[in-house]
Amino acid sequence: MNNAPVGVLGGTFDPVHNGHLRLAMEMATALEMAHVRLVPCARPPHRGAPTASPGQRAKWIRVAVSIEPRLRLDDRELLRDGPSYTVDTLASMRKEMPDTPLCLIMGRDVFAHLPKWHEWERIFDSAHIVLIDRPDIETQLHPDAQATLDARAVGNMRALHDSLCGLIYTYTPPPLAISASRIRELLANGESPRYLLPTAVLDDIMDAGVYMTCESHPATAANT
C-alpha cells in the first residue's frame, strides 16, 4: 500500500483562523497528504458550546478553503444528532474511504487527555494520529496516553502512507501563535483581529455581529 493519506483536523473553529489553516496546509505539504478535512464539532463533549452557530462556522470554513484544493470542509458532525464523538466520525470516514489512510491531527495537549475520550482506543481502528508537538508547551501525558504513544510511535512519515491506521507520528510545525479565544476577545472589546483570520471570514463575522458585546464598536473594529 502506498496511498496518500487524508488528514482530519477537528475543532470548534469558533471562528476558523489562520492558525488552523496554516497548520492544515503544513500537514498537507509536509506529510504529502491528498488533502486535509476541517471538521467542525457540533456539540463538543469536553467543553462548552461554541458561540457561533453551526451554520456560521461551516460557512466560514467553506469561504476560507474555497481557493485551496488541499483543504476541505467536512460538515458531517454538524449534520449528526448527539455529541460529536471523534471515534464515530472516523468510523464513518473509514467506511467511505476503505483503502485510504486517515490521519487524525491533534496537539500534544489534547492527546494528553485522550483516554478520557469516548471509546478512545477504537480511534486506532480507523486512523493514525499525527501528534503536533510544540516545544514551548510542556504537557504531562496521561499514563495510558504515554503507553499508547510508546507502543504505536513511528519515526518516518512514510509509514502513514503504507498502512491504513494504528500509528502515531509526531510532527513539530513552525510556530504560529494565533487562537480563536484571542480573536473572540478582540471582537468583544471592539478591537480588530484583522490578519489573524481570512478577510472574508472577518467581514462576515462583522456583518453578522457574532462575538460582539453591547460595548463593542463594530464600525471601528471593521475599519482598523
- How many domains is the backbone divided into? 2
Give me the oligomer status. single chain
CATH fold-level topology of the largest domain: Rossmann fold
Terminal CA distance: 51 Å
Spatial strand arrangement across the major sheet:
3-2-1-4-5-7-6
Please give the number of β-strands.
Answer: 7
Largest sheet: 7 strands, parallel
Radius of gyration: 18 Å
| CATH architecture classification name of the largest domain | 3-Layer(aba) Sandwich
**Class from helix and strand fractions:** alpha/beta
CATH superfamily of the largest domain: HUPs
Question: How would you briefly describe this protein structure?
Answer:
The chain is of the alpha/beta class. The protein folds into two domains: 6-171, HUPs (Rossmann fold); 180-223, no CATH class.
